[in-house]
Amino acid sequence: MSGSPPPLVGWDDVAAVAPDGLAVLDCAGRFVRLNPAAVALCGAGEETDLLGMSAPFAQGEGAATCQVGLLEYQSDEQVAHWMPASGTRREFAYRARGLPADPKFTIVSFRDVTDERHRQRRIAAIAQTSIALAAEGSLGSTLDAVAQQIVQADGLAGAQILILDGTGRELRLMGSAGLRHWDAFLDRLLECQDRGARLSMLDALREREPIVVPHRWSQILADPAWEPLHAYLGELNWDSFVSVPLMARGRPEGVLNAYFAPGQEIGGRTLEFLAAMAEQAALAVDYAALLQREREGARRNERRRLARDLHDSIVQQVFSIGMQANALGVLGARGGPVPAEAVRAFAEEIGALSQTVRADLRAMVHELRPSSSTRLGLEDAVSALVKSTENRTGLGIRLLCGKEVTDVEPERAEDMYRIVAEAIHNVVKHAEATTVTIRLGVRDHTLTASVRDDGRGLPEPGERGTPPDGEGGEGGRTAGTAWDHGYGYGLTTMRERAERWGGTMRIRSRAKSGTTVRIVIPLPVRVPEPPPTASDGSRSDPPAVPLRKAPGPAPSEC
Fold first, then answer.
1. Fewer Cβ in 10 A, N or C end of the chain?
2. Residue 454 confidence class, pLDDT cut points 50, 70, 90
């Protein structure tokens, strides 16, 4: 009984049945041996299909370990991405060790963690979205962040979030990711619908259930009704489409549209994730509406306060003036000489009271005065502002205004007026300009404005307030620039007013060549009335529900 006992199982047999992939790499990182599990994980039919191919695994001491995710424990595993000859990209968690007997070779054990990490990214996306909802920010920025989390977590081609206004009758695009911003998109969408295209998102709104349309892009591409959007949607590498309604308090607040990349499957878990993110978006919309109602309530309370102050202060002061005047009249009615000292005392008190009343009235009139755009209309309000600025500063201002702006609803008009007024204020204060051109109009169902000056432009790189790119910073609604802070918070307020309607503000500037501020605010798209409900509770729904242009102009989706 000398020597070691024979092994019960050969190591080749162990490798053949090992559940994890085992691979041997040469010094150049190429496969030289693989066990059956490794061959299957890599999506190959035979080991020979992979021999000599470059492996995705990093080698050497410098290889970084896997970054610990939200729900992961600390691990020495690394993660590699593998794209098989056919199929979707896979993620492998692996460990690599040098072969002591021959350092030219590396042994790698690996497993497929694609689904596991996908779930982790989805959970992290929901958590990050909750954080975004808790943080301060405009609704547009928040919904942009939600759309971005959806795209990143599931690797989608793109996502859009459209919301209904307070009446539940008008839609506007408020958040997107993966899709190029194009001001004419909503107009082209309406054109497609007028040609007979069916918009799946309206079905989702009507049914209050997710709508899944496999291979939607091929259908759109083959349908002449969608021709106005073929080029734009063709920029996105996508295939299938899902529209999920945003529901809050039992009512629809909008829709979440998801564009899936080719090869992506739309299963139950995918729809659960989209539904969870739609709930987050609906929460953001509902919270924004609640804040708006609180602001309106605060304004009503402020008006009541002013009315109370008017009664408690000014009315009493006017009463006192009347009493003093009556007393002075009584003195004069006696027929005798009136002492000069008494007259002086009455006059001084009446004068002091009248000055107090005048000051109080000016303050209250300023607070109660309706906005210029509400009283005059957008064009007349901007014209009055232009004339006032010219008379006050000597600045030459040219105003070009389209007729359609008179049809813009008061709230949108008010925000646009405030944006233009702030832009003119910035020109007067900072630009050292001699002329300004203002353009206002309605184009492609959007309210647009531009304010262009011939001033010194934004500061040179290195000066206080220079935008990060040093070029004047063309910023959309997600771009808060250093210039905002260098010149105060006026630009932030302007951008927030545009974002309120799903709009954008961009700034272009070159040193000594002036600055242009461009604002684009979409006009509303009317959602059709729901079909009537029969006496038995059933509905006779038409095969398709069209969008309607709101009075004036209108906007969004596929």
1. N
2. very high
